[in-house]
Amino acid sequence: MQVWDGVSDSRISFDWASASGLAPKQPVHQSTIAYMIENLNLTTALLSRLSELDSKLFISAPTRVSSIELGQETETLDLRSWPTVTLDNGRQLAARLLIGADGANSPVRTFAGIPSRGWDYGRHGVVASLRLEGPGWGGEEHKIAYQRFLPTGPVAMLPLPGNMATLVWSTVPERAARLKSLKEEDFVAMVNAAFRLSPVDLEYLHTIAEGQKEEVEWREQHTPVDEQKIPMRAVGAQAGSVANFPLKMRHADTYTGERVALVGDAAHTVHPLAGQGLNQGQADAAALVRVIETAVSQGSDIGSQLALEAYTSERWQANNALLGAVDKLHKLYSFGSGPIVPVRSWGLSAVNAIGPLKGWFMRQAAGT
Amino acid sequence: MASLRPLRTTSVLRTLPHSIKPSPYLCRPLTTTPNLHHNTTVDPSEVTHFNALASTCYLDVGCGGGIFAESAARLKNTASVTAIDPSPEVLSVAVAHAKRDPGLVSMMGEGRLEYLNTSIEELPRPGTEGGRQYDVVTLFEVLEHVTHPAPFLEHLLPFVKPGGWLVLSTIARTWTSWLTTKVVAEEVVGIVPRGTHDWNKYINEGELREWFAKKEGWGNMRAMGVVYVPGLGWREVPGSEGLGNYFFGVRKEGMEDERESWGKGGYTLESRWNFSNRV
């Protein structure tokens, strides 16, 4: 993984070979620090695992939730604490435990009345699936991720199989809108420029409505770069894959209510610059499973607050610390000039030079 | 007692060292067969085997709101739970709470969980008509309210099946328990009404040991002290049975051969709990 400062060009190179000391003694693959897994593959694997498990599993898809309300009391049953979910196909489900894994605007969180606090970054994430001129400088077997910190936000190129890569470009909303409006050849030129040209050049390129391709070609002649240290050139963007979404920091006050538990983005939304959102969600799911297993082994009602509170106490602090660290990183790199720039550049170079410290950061990122 | 949060009493039962012999004559074994699929990773023979073990019968004396009775009823190796309380108000709270869980409602329909508005003195004694014995008799947070504990316990003992357990929790009569249950709980925090506890009725763990040591056919006594740690909840603290709240378990001797065969087979109560974790 290669990360560098777009203003000062100071750089950090994350690979186990240079992270001596505290790196794992025998990593499975000598150079692997993280995996990129496409959502489709994750979903497919999860579904096939589910099909091996309990026969009582009921999946309703594709379907939408129309409403969530508390149940009723009858002569024999008191479901007033049970969330009752009505699906758009009319089916009603009463839940002993309703798990909100329903994203940043979680209807389950709203239903439970759990406040979520934070702020908007005033940035949008522009994502796209790109075709590169080759499989990357490390070849098919050694994929490298790249991230350059620009004053408007980081731009990242994350490897996929073959010649494909994923772009995640955090930038101000006006520039995101401009990028999305460009023709494919101009968009691709802008992506290549984002990893190569200076912030001043990039600022200008966003002001013109079209013709970025020619502008970038001309400017690149005057901007020497070491091509081996930056991602291979993009040659195309997959049609329809360019999208943007607002970046926010949000954290729910608690992850549990009576018969409700929140996981993933429903519980917390993080800036994508450290790529930790999915990892956090998976850690939430694992912790919730442990809490439910304990409750079942003790005969507790798995929907009761008493049984669920251990989940909040296990995950809330850990997520809060990570949300805070990522938020500070975002702020640190949003300075385009001034005294912060040399200090952060020195910091990045220092971490790069100190193997054990770098190893620590890498293990945090890898979640090991 | 100063129960800021209920104790997870079912976890206490895991610490019981010996097995409880399932007895098909006194307990109705579960007949439901799990709906198995071909694609399951659960070994079907394990499940069948496990169901055969679902045979522990509980009697919860002074069940209150039913917090233990509900938990015990949900355990997969439970055949039946009989929960009794002499107070009709308290019992109606327990029944209303169980109505919140359709699983418990169906157990009540099947008789697997039953709430009876009676005292132990009025419950038909074993050997008389309608009387029966139980694998585990529980007496949580009751003894400290009883004026004459010895005759009360005496009355309780015949309800335990040979080889079964009496498990109770209560409070030791110490200066710490006076401070926590009388001063803090009743006066400072006010979580229980004033006069709930009579410190003079508290029974020390040593006194229980002494009493049971003189009882023919009772042994295997063990105690577990628990302390409420603010922010963490109730925690086991070895040695704290001499300080305040504690659990106490004592076993009624059964037939020696039975106990040994079960011990060798490895079907301890503990291993059965692990079963329920896995399934």
Kindly list the characteristics that best describe this protein.
heterodimer; A: 368 residues; alpha+beta; D-Amino Acid Oxidase, Chain A, domain 2; 9-stranded mixed sheet; 3-stranded antiparallel sheet; 10 helices; B: 279 residues; alpha/beta; Rossmann fold; 8-stranded mixed sheet; 34% helix; disordered N terminus; disordered C terminus; transferase (chain B); methyltransferase (chain B)
CATH superfamily of chain B: Vaccinia Virus protein VP39
What is the number of domains of chain B? 1
Estimated structural class of chain B: alpha/beta
CATH architecture field of chain B: 3-Layer(aba) Sandwich
Strand order of the largest sheet of chain B: 3-2-1-4-5-8-6-7
What is the second-level CATH architecture of the domain at 120-251 in chain A?
A: 2-Layer Sandwich
Stretches of chain A where pLDDT is under 50 for at least 5 consecutive residues are: none
Task: Indicate the mean pLDDT of chain B.
Answer: 77
Global Rg of chain A? 23 Å
- Please give the CATH class of the domain at 120-251 in chain A: Alpha Beta
What is the CATH topology assignment of the domain at 120-251 in chain A? D-Amino Acid Oxidase, Chain A, domain 2
- Fraction of residues in helix of chain B: 25-40%
* CATH class assignment of chain B: Alpha Beta
Q: What's the order of the H and E elements of chain A?
A: EEHEEEEHEEEEHHHHEEEEEHHHH
Sheet of most strands of chain A: 9 strands, mixed
Shape of chain B: globular
Q: What is the first-to-last residue Cα distance of chain B?
A: 35 Å
Strand content of chain B: 15-25%
What does this structure look like?
The complex is a heterodimer of chains A (368) and B (279). Chain A is α+β, with helices and mostly antiparallel strands. Among the domains of chain A are: 61-95, no CATH class; 120-251, D-Amino Acid Oxidase, subunit A, domain 2 (D-Amino Acid Oxidase, Chain A, domain 2), CATH 3.30.9.10. Chain A has helices spanning 39-52, 107-112, 173-181, 184-194, 199-205, 212-220, 277-297, 305-332, 340-353, 355-366; strands at 2-5, 11-13, 65-70, 83-87, 92-94, 98-100, 116-132, 146-150, 153-159, 164-171, 234-237, 243-252, 256-257, 260-262, 268-269. In chain A, strands 1, 2, 7, 8, 9, 10, 11, 12 and 15 form a nine-stranded mixed beta sheet that branches. In chain A, strand 1 and strand 2 (11-13) form a beta hairpin. Chain A is elongated, with a radius of gyration of 23 Å. The longest helix of chain B has 14 residues, at 175-188. The interface between A and B is medium-sized, with 22 and 27 residues.
